[in-house]
Amino acid sequence: MIIAARKPLEEIRNMLAGYKRILVVGCGTCVTICWAGGEKEVGILSSQLRLASSKDGNELSVMEAVVERQCEKEMVIEELGDKVQEVEAILSMGCGAGVQTMAELFEEKPIFPALNTTFIGMPEKEGLWLEMCGACGDCFLDRTGGICPVVRCAKGLLNGPCGGTRKGGKCEIDPEKDCAWVLIYRRLEKQGRLALMRKYYEPKNYRAVKRPGKIEALEA
Amino acid sequence: MEKDGKIIAFCCAESAYRAADRAGRLRIRYPDNVRVIRIPCAGRVSVLHILKAFEKGAAGVLVMGCQEGACRHLTGNIRAKERVKYAKDLLKEVGINGQRVKMVNFGPDMAQKFAREIEEMAEKIKEE
Q: Residue A26 in contact with residue A71, Cβ under 8 Å?
């Protein structure tokens, strides 16, 4: 899923300077799971904005809404309906795709991002999310026991490990992190597929996805 | 935020609320600007409850739960402690002193402590 983190309040307030009526829109999918832009976070940010503006003596009317999936136009229209007409600006707590979906739907209103969209990852434990996929468009996981060296190795090596692996299988760049290639070795060892470690892989095709990416379903 | 603004005390029904009740029965004096809200467990208090209290004009918020290890719902008071910590950071971001919100742990018979905590918060608010 997509992982994001909220921007500092000051940055958000600077974006909203001059607007008196705003709508804060959360998303009920990825950013809810990573505690960045779900219903609860919408409530917290809205409350903070109200408190901060009343402390400064400014009037700010903050409306709140949460769309099940902010990156789907139908869902955004269904949830927001006429609410958008009542406000001067929209603050999106969705990922970059959500922000842009709304920007396309409500062209006449300025849309501001409240989050920094950071990576595709998974929850490791409560409150901790790790990057797992770089969306490179040329998946390599069949050869690495399901561990992606492109994003999980600090150097993105396809033929690892590098010479800097620390004792205990930690990364030389960050001793807190596991060396992805040590993890790959151990995984392949468990599966009896260590022969894969001896293979040499040519440089990856980093142009597999032409940006901006576009996929059309065959049946569409 | 008024200096004589209200103090909201979220009191766990198992401990702090009983302590508040006992303080009343023992005629212990404490500031009258406190509003006691009875909750089933300190773990029921969310960060949003705390922020909303300030939004509605509260000058201070106390989250009062059982002593650590004595929560009837096992970890409600621990979760409340974490939430209060988080709320402090959120309030600081807004420019409100984080000390305006506090987690306190109680036994049901600690009526004196209940009164003392309310007094301390009231003092803190006046000092600012």
A: no
